Amino acid sequence: MGLRRILLVNLYNLINCESPLFFSIKNPNANIFINNIIMKKLFTKLTLLFIVLALSPAIQSQMILEYNLELSSGTTITLPLYGTVNVTVDWGDGNTEPYTTTGNKNHTYATGGTKAVSISGSLTQFGSGVAYNNADKLVRVTSFGNLGLTSL
User: Fold this and answer.
1) 149: which of 26, 43, 47, 55 is 20 to 30 A away, CA to CA?
2) Would you state the pLDDT for residue 47?
3) What is the pLDDT of residues 36-47, one digit of tens each?
4) Does this model's pTM top 0.85?
5) Around Cβ 15, how many Cβ atoms within 10 Å?
6) CA separation for the pair 23, 9 (Å, rounded)
């Protein structure tokens, strides 16, 4: 049974007081009945919230890039930040830098290997339309994020 079906069945059971919890607290006593209604509403709202969170696609706000520094000489990578630029770059080595101007932004690592770089904020253009240094080290875009990119 898929996750969506399980969640919908659980939601139906909660709405109709058919879960074991509701069977166990049903009682002719008025206080128990009122508590049951309150619990039913609370669990219904919580279940709906859970369904929305579970079934909604996760929105990644950051652009995440993976670089392999072993693909060419040196341990420097370059980010071509153009268009509207108002970002913070987490270089993945404990260093973060804010940028508000266009241009190629370089960062040199102490060691080689694979590095993950995160860009958050607002950026409309990644790249300038011409080749740039160290582009060969970019091996994967894990997420384009929600930066407002309109051009690559």
Assistant:
1) 55
2) 60
3) 555 566 556 656
4) no
5) 15
6) 16
- Count other Cβ atoms within 10 Å, centred on residue 9: 12
Q: Are 78 and 106 in contact (CB under 8 A)?
A: yes
d(CA 92, CA 49): 34
Could you state, in order of their start, the residue ranges of all structural domains in the chain? 3-55, 63-143
3-state SS class at 40: helix
Lowest mean pLDDT across 31-45, 66-80, 92-106: 31-45
The CA distance from 106 to 124, in Å, is: 19
Contact between 110 and 69 under an 8 Å Cβ cutoff? The reply is: no
pLDDT given for residue 1 in this prediction: 41
Give me 65's structure tokens.
């890039």
